[in-house]
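DM from R.C. (forwarded with permission)

"hey, sorry to bug you on a friday — could you get me a structure for this? deadline for the figure draft is monday and I only need the backbone to look sensible"
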Amino acid sequence: MKKLTSAAVTVLLAIISTAFIYGQSTEKETRNVTGFTKVSFGVPGNLYIRFGSEYQVVLEGDKEFLADIETEVSGGRLVIKKDNWTGYNNKKVIVNITMPSIEGLGVSGSGQAEITDAVKAEDLGLSVSGSGKLLINELTAENLDCGISGSGDIIIKGTGNVNEAELSISGSGNYSGESLKIKSAEISISGSGSCQCNVAETLEARVSGSGNVTYIGNPRIDARVSGSGRVRSK
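My reply, with the result:
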């Protein structure tokens, strides 16, 4: 019993020590970047975007990991990336961004990005490359352009309205937006991807492979399918 108790205490102390060390090395860091309307997120972890009158970019994570993450603005786009991954395979970062408005958001790799506030935009471009995920709550836009390459997901969780939308999926990715009402949609799937959408007037769908387009609404359909894929009403 004494040996068991001693072993348990040793393990507990090791856990506490590790947690203490990890906690000491974790910090928040504010980056002085402004003047962007688009964001590219290319590191593992989570990105949260909200809207406000002032720009703010705050990173949270391992101190050494944060030191190697680049945040730079080029052509109105904030690029969050890391070039050298040696020794950082299991590291993740949390990024909180406040910005006045947004025109584009892209995720590359395995990260997850979410716009927590309702989005209102004339034109909005969304893209996922890799196995990442992009989440949008409420959305109102004149034009929506979504592109997925790989196994990632674009998910519109809330309601909203879009006049025209172009949705392109290459690979096994998924677009889900049954509560977002789209007036006119052009959808292209190459591979085994899937699309769940809500279309009111016209739906043009091109499917090559085993992909599926499932729609809500009563639009005029122009569908061409090559392979075992389907275009069907839910």
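R.C.: lifesaver. Residues 2-25 form the longest helix (24 residues).
me: no worries. The two ends are 63 Å apart (CA to CA).
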